[in-house]
Amino acid sequence: MLRMSSSRDGYHHGSLARALEDAAMQLLATRSAHEISLREVARAANVSHNAPYHHFTDRLGLLRAIAERSMRDLIARVETAIESAGTPSLALRAGTNAYISFAIEHPHAFDAVYDPTVCIPGAPTETMAPLIDALETALFTVASGVGLDTEADANAVWGLVHGLGMLAAAGHLTPEQARASCESALDRMLAEG
Amino acid sequence: MLRMSSSRDGYHHGSLARALEDAAMQLLATRSAHEISLREVARAANVSHNAPYHHFTDRLGLLRAIAERSMRDLIARVETAIESAGTPSLALRAGTNAYISFAIEHPHAFDAVYDPTVCIPGAPTETMAPLIDALETALFTVASGVGLDTEADANAVWGLVHGLGMLAAAGHLTPEQARASCESALDRMLAEG
DNA sequence: GCTCCTATCTTGACAGCGTCAACTCATCTG
DNA sequence: CAGATGAGTTGACGCTGTCAAGATAGGAGC
Questions:
Q1: Which end of chain B has fewer CB atoms within 10 angstroms, the N or the C?
Q2: Is B44 exposed, middle or buried (0-12, 13-18, 19+ CB in 10 A)?
Q3: What is the DSSP letter of B118?
Q4: Under an 8 A CB cutoff, do A153 and B181 touch?
Q5: Which residues in B have their CB inside 8 Å of a CB on A?
């Protein structure tokens, strides 16, 4: 039988894959994904520099794993924001705000998700593909709820929050500016329903 | 006297800085800025791996230089698009379209410009600061021309084109989808002036 | 015209990186 | 109990960014 918990069992056992992802996610809080070295992650998990290769094909394999985790976090955040809103209009506000907030609070996780060298949209990982769909669906649904029901409109909402989130994360806009811009743009777009 | 042209003069002379930037820009057409090595650029310019240090403080110094060049290209593209449009409304369409097109056609140059490790918006280079201002001003002006005259509205336009450009550059949207979304969003925002 | 200075380009070295290969060891299977 | 297997190890390779020191060419001062 495999021991399933605690990665501290001396030699073998323990879920090292998970431990490595955890360590990488922690590093992602300060550095960008490109600035994180595999050896550094291994060191943080107290294993040799080659141990990760038994759990990930590549450095990129690990980055893909944390990108997928980050994507799940982003989706969860957007979906719970939407679900806990009372009206369709409030749901759109809450969902877009959650997207922007995630980008600001976890900038490196955010752009790991959208890094084309980590995840190629044209040929995404088996686990990433449905996640992308889920995010698009969530945004599309909440936009449809207030009359923004064409593909173009839904994509515009996505583009708006994505751009404002990135600009705020990079420091070109303050979080307040980004959120206010989003509100204002949605107000204008919905002016005549 | 300094010889000003031709970097092919054997040992000394020639504008190596320019030649290195040219080589880096060329590499930027295929690889991301993070994937370009200083030694590789030096090799492309036929100099030793340490020659660049006499013209740039760092690897980052070279990246900053090509980011500034890319920013100038982006601004030029947006401004000429705006200027060659007949009406304020067409100018907004042309300017936003140019921004999105640049992101799609030069994705690596585009995100070198906005890479926070290359240019920190809070503390930009002496040469980058006015460029950022120029871009913001261009967008702000063209947005004001059609009644989007608040800071929030102008930032929304910036966020919209930035996000759509990034999503299209990454492959999450087709160029056509991005452009159509932009048009559609602007139409909605201007529906009741 | 000779010497010196300085900017520029050179070679050489170092640690850190990703990755391949070979080895060790604990556990599961028969 | 034997051996296979999966999970960890050490060692090596070439590449990278950067520091240090040597070489060289052209201009300045005498």
A1: N
A2: middle
A3: T
A4: yes
A5: 32, 34-35, 107, 114, 116-117, 120-122, 132, 150-153, 155-156, 158-167, 169-173, 177-178, 180-185, 188-192
Considering only CA atoms, which of A156, A150, A152, A116 is closest in space to residue A132? A116
pTM over 0.90: yes
Helix (H) or strand (E) holding A175: helix A175-189
CA distance A2 to chain B (A): 40
Nucleic strand C within 7 A of Cβ B47 = yes
CA→C1' distance for A66 and C25 (Å): 30
Residue-wise pLDDT for A111-156, tens only, equals 999 999 999 999 899 999 999 999 999 999 999 999 999 999 999 9
Whether residue A158 and residue B163 make contact (CB cut-off 8 A), yes or no, is yes
- Compute the distance between CA of residue B90 and CA of residue B186 in angstroms, rounded to an integer: 11
Q: What is the pLDDT of residue A113?
A: 98
Chain B residues in contact with A174 by the CB 8 A cut-off are: none
In this predicted structure, what is the pLDDT of residue B19? Answer: 96
In whole angstroms, give the CA distance from residue A59 to residue A61: 5
Q: For residue range A2-52, list pLDDT tens digits in order.
A: 333 333 445 555 799 999 999 999 999 999 999 999 999 999 999 999 999
Dist. CA A105–CA A123, nearest whole Å:
28
DSSP type of residue A11 = S
Tokens of A189: 């777009």
Q: Is the pLDDT assigned to residue B23 strictly greater than 90?
A: yes
